[in-house]
Specification:
- With 633 residues, this protein is α+β, with helices and mostly antiparallel strands.
- Strands 5-34-33-32 form a 4-stranded antiparallel beta sheet, covered by helices on one side.
Length: 633
């Protein structure tokens, strides 16, 4: 840094060195030390320990010398060095070409000069004769003619075709050295066995090819698969308009309003299940176009009516993919989340069963409960597979009108049950000695167990918390909802009292573990916070008995409900907390019994008491994804 300092003779510049604040203070000896750094050019992408197989010695050998050179850009040029052998050869070739061209020019010049000298030595008669010959050799119209034809040029047309690119998949794998070595050893052992068989003459003969008969071909799996594929193609061509609506329909009017609509798509009905009530709907967790429908009866005058289970696909609405018939009505179904071919079933007589839809068509399930294994004594209203991470066995839960919530597990080729909780009534101590209808006065301690069994409440539905899988809710016929735990089977954790009639469905929210919905025959749907059992957060009066409710899997604030007057109500609590965004009549002169959202596509599934199942597509206002629910007052 230069400073101006004033002295007697004027200003004088002086230089002063000011070190940086973070500069090290080194001594003279330290400054004289020379630090050497060695730079190595290593390619980071080069392999560190490559091994190659030597086919002569039949062993793996390590490669110690690895090329560390990496080319980032490479291009062939046309420049050569003057002193190189290639440049000398090219120069010699150019000199030879120039010499040959010069000799050719000299020969042409010499020939023309000789002709001129010969013509000059001719006399006049020879010159005239030469001109006559030259004139005679010219072409004229008598002895020469030249014709040419000009045809029309065809116009060139450019034709292009755009096709859908074929589907591609990325596949990658990693093989270790010992895996490669084992594969070669196995191949060599197999070759030695084949050589030994050929030498000994003991090579197995091929079995004679059996000719397939006409009956075998008609009942073969390949023909069945081909016929099913053709049937799907015919149905898709026939219902092309519905398929286009499923893929591309969007209601443009939703941009100018908050309400929404439902577009009817496919209808699923079968002659064998006509006029039977739809008692359950369940989408397959692995194949989202496949769903199961159970058929039975809610009418207590038809206790012994048979039931059925149909598995439909959106690709073929004309006929079910799989179909099972039962001797009693089916009241509940559920697909296994990890094994999508297993379907658990609850029946009207209290029987539980497990079906395998991949097995050959059969009327019998793979396993079924019985009186010996302790089946329920009344109707099973709902079944649900155990999805907790603690269990690895096939295990499901069932709730019944006999007042039991039981856990069923598949062990030793039979179903074994464990009662999770008994739905005992809540009563004050002074009412313990009261008269029970059909039991007389029960006061002694020996009859206490019989008394509790006679007073059990009828369970109608249940649901497990999505985040805390040991917490579950149970709805009863007297309008009460009990919060229970799998760890405590002697008492309820909490009881929610607001409904006046049967509870038909309870559903936990997918995103908020504190919130759940309840639907009842008293025409209401209520939203609860399980930490505040005194009263519900919101209550909606739908004007008819509510058959079922379902939360949307893509939003924390959207849910749908179906009622006995044939209507579907869709709510979005972030938009309107007092009224539904969609209230649409789906069926006439029929009651809707169940509803279910598709896990991936914006469609819902509804079933009625006439055996009809419909798919409805949501308009844009009804399918807005959102993982937050705002319930400010």
């Amino acid at each position: 840094i230069h400073h101006q300092i004033e002295d007697d003779n004027g200003f004088e510049l002086q230089t002063k060195i000011i070190p940086a604040p973070d500069q090290l203070d080194l001594t003279e000896e330290e400054l004289e030390v020379v630090h050497t750094k060695l730079l190595e050019a290593l390619n980071p992408n080069a392999p560190t320990n490559p091994a190659y197989f030597d086919f002569e010695e039949r062993v793996f050998k390590w490669e110690t010398n690895v090329d560390q050179c990496a080319f980032h850009f490479e291009e062939d040029g046309d420049l050569i060095k003057k002193d190189s052998e290639e440049a000398k050869a090219m120069k010699e070739l150019e000199e030879q070409k120039a010499a040959m061209l010069e000799e050719k020019l000299k020969k042409e010049i010499g020939t023309s000069t000789e002709e001129e000298q010969a013509i000059a030595m001719m006399d006049e008669e020879e010159k005239a004769e030469k001109r006559r010959i030259d004139v005679a050799s010219l072409h004229n119209q008598f002895n020469y003619s030249q014709r040419s034809t000009l045809t029309n040029r065809n116009k060139l047309n450019t034709v292009t075709v755009n096709t859908v690119p074929p589907p591609t998949e990325d596949y990658s794998g990693m093989a270790t050295q010992w895996q490669i070595y084992d594969a070669y050893i196995e191949m060599m052992a197999k070759q030695k066995e084949e050589e030994a068989e050929e030498e000994s003459g003991e090579k197995t003969k091929k079995a004679p090819v059996e000719t397939a008969t006409k009956e075998d071909i008609l009942s073969s799996e390949s023909l069945l698969r081909s016929v099913k594929l053709v049937e799907r193609m015919i149905n898709q061509n026939k219902d092309e308009d519905i398929l286009e609506d499923f893929k591309y329909w969007e209601d443009r009017s939703d941009e100018y309003r908050d309400l929404g609509v439902l577009l009817p798509l496919w209808k699923f009905v079968n002659e064998d299940t006509k006029k039977r009530q739809v008692t359950g709907l369940c989408w397959n967790p692995a194949y989202h176009d496949l769903f199961a429908v159970s058929f039975g009866s809610y009418d207590f005058n038809h206790v012994n009516s048979p039931g059925a289970i149909c598995c439909y696909s959106l690709k073929n609405p004309s006929y079910p993919e799989y179909m099972f018939f039962t001797d009693v009505g089916v009241t509940a179904i559920d697909f296994h989340p990890d094994y999508p071919s297993l379907l658990t079933v609850g029946m009207r007589d209290g029987t539980c069963a497990i079906y395998d839809v991949n097995a050959k068509p059969s009327e019998n399930p793979i396993i079924r409960s019985s009186i010996r294994t302790g089946k329920h004594q009344d109707i099973i209203w709902q079944v649900r597979w155990d999805t907790s991470s603690q269990t690895r066995s096939l295990k499901f839960f069932a709730v019944s009108s006999d007042g039991r919530v039981s856990s069923w597990s598949l062990a030793k080729n039979e179903l074994q049950y464990t009662d999770i909780i008994y739905l005992k009534p809540e009563k004050p101590e002074e009412e313990t000695n009261r008269e029970v209808p059909g039991a007389g006065m029960i006061n002694d301690a020996e009859s206490e167990e019989k008394k509790e069994l006679l007073l059990l409440r009828s369970g109608t539905c249940f649901d497990f918390n999505k985040k805390q899988d040991h917490i579950f809710l149970v709805g009863t016929e007297d309008g009460l909802i009990h919060k229970c735990s799998k760890a405590y089977n002697s008492q309820y954790l909490e009881t929610y009292k607001s409904h006046q009639m049967d509870i038909y469905a309870v559903r936990w929210n997918y995103f908020h573990e504190n919130l759940f919905l309840s639907a009842s025959a008293d025409w209401t749907v209520k939203l609860w916070d399980y930490k505040h059992p005194e009263e519900p957060l919101l209550s909606f009066d739908l004007g008819a008995s509510v058959g079922d409710i379902a939360w949307a899997p893509y939003s924390a604030s959207v849910f749908a409900a179906c009622t006995d007057d044939g209507r579907v109500h869709v709510f979005d609590l972030n938009v309107n907390k007092h009224d539904s965004l969609c209230d649409q009549l789906v069926v006439k002169r029929a009651k809707l019994t169940h509803i279910a959202f598709n896990p991936t596509d914006p469609i819902i599934l509804v079933g009625d008491d006439k055996g009809l199942t419909q798919t409805l597509k949501l308009s844009p206002n009804l399918k807005k994804p959102n993982d937050k629910l705002v319930l400010d007052e």
